Amino acid sequence: MAIRTYATLSKTGSTMTLSAAGAGPDTAPIENHGMLVVSNAHATLARTVTMVVPGTTEVGGSLPDLAVSVAALTTKFIPIINLYNDGSGACSWTYSDGGADLSVGLFKL
Fold this sequence. Notes:
single chain; 5-stranded mixed sheet
């Protein structure tokens, strides 16, 4: 498990630096205007990032996690929102295929 930290974006522009995803799960604090950026370098296969949604429904069932598909050779921006709050002010996510071919970064304004 990796604890990811945010890079703060400059109001005058910033260079986005990503690092290789590990096997996961990864965690981070929830920040206002926080964004998880995931880039898939695989030439043909999509990869999935699953954002953990903690908690239960009114009838006791688990809330469904959010699976975000990142198509081959594309980048997705996933907002870090309070829905993912694990009760300690943090959130977590996992990667399909052990994070193969994925680079990630956390950014905030």
